Amino acid sequence: MTPPANPAVRDRLRIAIQKNGRLSEPARALLSACGLSWRESRDRLFCYGESAPIDLLLVRDDDIPGLIAGGLCDLGIVGRDVLLEQAGEREQTGQPAAFREVRPLGFGSSKLMIAVPDEWDWQSPSQLEGMRIATSYPALLRGWLKQLSIEADVVTSSGSVEIAPRLGQADLVCDLVSSGATLAANHLKPVYTILDTEAVLAAPALPFGDTRADLADMLLRRLDGVLRIRDSKLLLFQASRDSLAEVISLLPDAETPTMLQVDGSDSIALQALCHGAVTWQRLEDLKRAGARGLMVLPVERMLA
To answer: What's the confidence (pLDDT) of residue 64?
Structure first.
C-alpha cells in the first residue's frame, strides 16, 4: 500500500484542466473571469501564469486525479464522475484517499444512469440481480450495487458502452447521460440515476504547507465571487415606507437590500443583489407592489 506522494514545496500554484473536450473552454473562461491570464508554451501543454503565480497544465480529463495524487499538479478542474471513479478505485485497492472535491463549478452537468432495453418493464433496482451491466465506471457501479446488496456482473468497457447489449456482452448499461440521444439510437432507455455530475475543482486530500495555501485561498475567494454573480443582477429602485414589506417579499433570492432615506420625502432608495432572473414580468410585479424608478444593472465582479 503506497501513501500519496508528498507534494513538492513550490511557490507557484499549478492547475490541471482538460486540454480538449467539453470542460476545456468553460474551465478556461471561469479562470479568466477570476483575473488569471497565461502565456502558452509552444507544445500547448503548459501555460505560464502572467497575472498571478498560477500556471495551467493541459491534459486528458482522466489524468487529472492521478496528477493531483502524485503531486504533479496542485488543483484540477475535472468531472465529478471521473474524480469519484478514481477515488473508488483507490479505496477498492486499499490505497489511501489522495484527492477531494473542493467546489462544484456549475458547468458540464450530466447524469450517471442505469439504462435498460426499451422493452423492459422497469420497476426497481432489484431487477438487476444476476444481470450483466456494461460500464466505463466499474468502481462507482460496484459501490452502488454493494450499497443496495445487489449481486450483478459488472462488465468493464472502455469503448462505446451503449452497444454492449446489442453485441450480447451485457444485459444493460450504466453510462453518462446528457441528452439521451445515443441511448435511444441503441434502443435503450435511462431509468435510474446513480450520480449527478458536473465539473468540480479538485484538490489534494492534505492541505498545502507552503505559499500555495495562500494562492489557493485567493483563487477560491475569486471563484466564489464569480460563481455567485454568474446569474446575478443589481436591482435599484425607490419605494415608499408603507410598501416596503410587499416589495421585499418579491425578492426572495436577493441579499438583504441596502436602504437609504431619500431627502425631503417618505421614499426609500434600495439596492438589492438578486441571484435569480430579473425578468420583465418580475419588474412589473415590483412596480405594482409600489417600486418605481427600477433599474437592472449587470454585476461584473464580487468579492465577499
So the answer is: 97
All cell numbers assigned to 10: 513550490
- Taking the C-alpha atoms of residue 256 and residue 192, their distance in angstroms, rounded to an integer, is 40
pTM over 0.85: no
CA-atom Rg of the chain in angstroms = 25
User: Per residue in 219-231, pLDDT tens?
Assistant: 999 999 888 887 7
* pLDDT digits 0-9 by tens, 77-102: 999 999 999 999 999 899 999 999 99
What type of residue sits at position 102? V
C-alpha grid cell for residue 151? 449481486
Q: How many CB atoms sit inside 10 A of residue 32's CB?
A: 13
Neighbours of 153 (CB within 10 A): 12
